Structure formats: C-alpha cells, structure tokens
Amino acid sequence: MLKLAITLLSRFNKRGDATDADEANQLLANVLDICLPDSREYTLAELVTPMLAMHTGVNAVGDTSAAVAVSSTRSGNQRSPYSLDQLRRNLEQCNQQDNPRLLDDVISQLRSALSFYGPGQPGWIGWKESLAIALGLRFERQGQKQDLEDVLLFSREMLMWTSRHRTHHCHSLKHLAGVLRRQFRQDGDRKDLEEGIQLSRDVLALTPPGHPDRAISLCNLGIDLSAQFKQSGDRDDLDEAIQLDRDALVDDLDEAIQLHRDALVLRPPGHPDCAITLCSLETELGTRFEQSGDKDDLDEAIQLGQDALVLTPPEHPHYAMSLSNLGEKLSTQFEQSGDGDDLDKAIQHHRDALMLRSPGHSDRAISLCNLGVDLGM
C-alpha cells in the first residue's frame, strides 16, 4: 500500500488528477492504522504524509502540520554529526574494493544522518541519494532483497520531491529507471521493465542532442529495449509491452544498437565511460547475431569486447563483466567454427571472471554456469 501511495502521489504531481491524491491519502491512512509505530512501514508513511499535504494542499491523514513542525524542529535544533562528503568518499572506497564492514558502517551513518532532515529540506536529497547508492551496492555484493526494495522506495520518494525542478527531476528519473532495471534482472517482472522503458524515454526527452548526459540516456534506453526484445521474442508481445508503433521486431534491436553507436561517438577512447559503452554495444551485436546469424555482427562483437577489456583495468568493478561478455562471444564463435583456440580463451576468461566474483556476489552463479557449459563442450 505504501508503494502504491508513493506512486499515486508521483503521478498526481505529473498530471494533477485529484483522484490520485485522494487515493494516496486513504492508502496512507490504512498503513498508519495497521502498522506498528516502530515498524519501517509506519515510519515511511509518516515521512510521506507531509509530502501529500505540501504537494497537494489537501488535508492529509494524521496531524500533518505537527509532522512538518517536528521535522522542521528536528533539523533546525540539531545538526548531523556526519560529513556527507566524507561518507561519499568512504562509499567510493567501497565501490573500488569489497569491504563489507565499511559499507555497513556507511549505510548505518547515512541512515542516522537522514534522521536530522525532513523530506524536501535542504540537503535531504543528497543524503537520500547517497543512501540509495550504498544500499544498491550492498545488494550487488550480498544479494539482500530488502536493500533493493529500500532503494526502489527511496528512488520513488526522491522523484516526487524533484518533480518541479527539471535538472534534479531528470536525474531522479534516471536513477529510478536504473533501479527498476536492476529489479527486473532480479525478479523478471515485466511491469518493472515496462515502467523502466517509459522512464528512460522521459529521460531521453529531457536530454536533447548536445546535453552532457545524452550519451548515458541513449545507452540506458538501448539496454531497456534490448531486454524487452529478449523477453518477448514476438512482435505482437513486444508491441503490446512497450506500447509503441513499431513496424517490426528487428527495429527495436537495431534501434538499441544504433543508440549505443551514437553514444560511442560521444565517448571516444580516453573517455571514462568508453569501455562500458563498448561492452553494451558488444552485447547488442551478439544478440542480433543470435537472431540473424550474421557473422559480421559476431566478429564485431568480439573485437569490441577485446577493446573494452584493454581499456578496463583489472581492479575496475566492470572488469569481471568484460571478461564474462567476451568469454560468451568466444564460446559462440567456437560453436560456429570449431576452433579450439576460441574455446580455450573463453574458458580462461570465465575462470578469471569467477575469481573476481567471490561467494555472495550477485553474478557468481552466472560465471559458474558459463564455465560449466564451456568445460562441457
């Protein structure tokens, strides 16, 4: 109910339909009635309640004025003892190396710091976003589903508070689309993918040619379209899922490839995101090869994968992904040509990727599976 209330409030901010605000108000009342005061759901509902009043002007459930006053007093009389810049540096350290204890400490401190800020107050977005990033990183490392659910809820919450600020709203849209992309990979829920595609299109509309974030917007939409293509594999299903007027299924995959090519032009060698863009284009070309059997696509995919691996240092978080992707393409080439060298290289790449994905890593099962398949050839 809480998730639906947040979604309805977000839609109210976008469309202005009072029915959405009324329904969100009722859902919040239900949450506050049935949940214990010390529960996570009750606490979040208390945070969302002031948002409803401040965004809609309606009388939300409970004593909203008191809630806002408490929030204001809390942040006005006390100041967080933590430094956001320092915690962000610690978070970046966690991103570069696997340090579970430090990551847990960062998350705990970010949660504590947020208690000094009411929703929408100066500084609140920065703390909230950093906490969402930290929880997302812990989910990738440890696979705790609650972390991913919290990230999704926080992302929707941030989107509501940035609805009237173009730059911040675009960033929040992109962040929520990324979380939905991650959740789709975890659960395979088609609704998450459909919502993510629409959000990615909204982001692209807000980042016209020449915008510094145009490249990443192109890449993200390309990834989402490719995922939709892979899931349905049928023109009618694809058209229904993404609700767009497309003439043929192949157009979607070609569009995804072209989006990545366009992004690559904006990220030449030397650009910090060149390698990840090469990997994305490699993946789409591999998918098109599976559909069409065009050997040129596979050859180009392998070359792009090799280029990406050269540009990615071994300590980089994406190095294992680059190894795994290239290993898959070489395995496919072995199936086509029967060249044992391709299989040997594929096995070695998968072994190297497995070494970098220790027990508990969200992609370790994929590496085990890839290595097992290649060893069985």
Automatic annotation (TrEMBL):
Species in which this protein is naturally found: Paxillus involutus ATCC 200175
Gene3D superfamilies named among the record's database cross-references: Tetratricopeptide repeat domain (1.25.40.10)
Protein name: TPR-like protein
Coiled coil feature spans: none
Species classification: Eukaryota, Fungi, Dikarya, Basidiomycota, Agaricomycotina
Family annotation (InterPro entries): TPR-like_helical_dom_sf
A Pfam family recorded for this sequence: TPR_10
Family annotation (PANTHER family): FUNGAL LIPASE-LIKE DOMAIN-CONTAINING PROTEIN, KINESIN LIGHT CHAIN
